[in-house]
Amino acid sequence: MSHCGANCILSITVVGFLWGATNPFLRAASRCHSIEKGGEGENNLITILTNFFKSFLDWRFTVPFLLNQSGSILFNVLVISFPVTVVVPCVNAIQFVATFVVGRLIGEKLESSSITQKIPSAEESNESSIPPLSGAVVDQIAEIYAEPQLRASQIQLDKNAEPPWDPDPKA
Q1: Can you tell me whether residue 41 is helix, strand or coil?
Q2: Cβ–Cβ < 8 Å for 21, 102
Q3: pLDDT tens per residue, range 88-128
């Protein structure tokens, strides 16, 4: 592996931009296609395959998809040729920024999340909120992690014990 010079930086920028700039276009093209849902008696696999091939017939999806995949090929070349610790974070950062910028340029709006999660403070949380383990659960866990039992084929025979088969059947 070599150090990351001008060629590396240019390649990282191209891959990040290819991935980031094509994401909003792929999102927009996928919204344009109405998803046909199969009826009760119809084969869902056929419906999925039909929708899949219809999307590739639309240039608004195919062109960004092919550009995105060419970025993936170049990314694999980058990972082989340059330090992964430099390539991966830089490409991801550039992709993130390019997705935001290109998305805003083509008119995408930021959507706020409707999911909120409250993280309790140390005073609010208590151990009593975790239910205690019942005896049956503890027994099952103990059984799983107990000493393994030897199978019959693994039992060591005493030196003086006779084997379970006749070693000399002709005698």
Answers
A1: coil
A2: yes
A3: 999 999 999 999 999 999 888 877 655 665 666 655 555 55
Q: What pTM was computed for the model?
A: 0.57
Residue 13 burial (10 A CB sphere; 0-12, 13-18, 19+):
middle
How many angstroms from the chain centroid is the CA of residue 41? 33
Residue count of the chain, please give it: 171
DSSP readout, 33-54? SPPPPP-SSS-HHHHHHHHHHH
Six-digit token string for 55: 């999307």
Find the Cα–Cα–Cα–Cα dihedral 66, 4, 91, 69, rounded to 10°.
Answer: 10
The whole-angstrom separation of Cα 44 and Cα 41 is 9
> Whole-angstrom Cα distance, residue 80 to residue 162?
61
**Contact predicate 15/71, CB 8 Å:** yes
Residue 16 near residue 94, CB atoms below 8 Å: yes
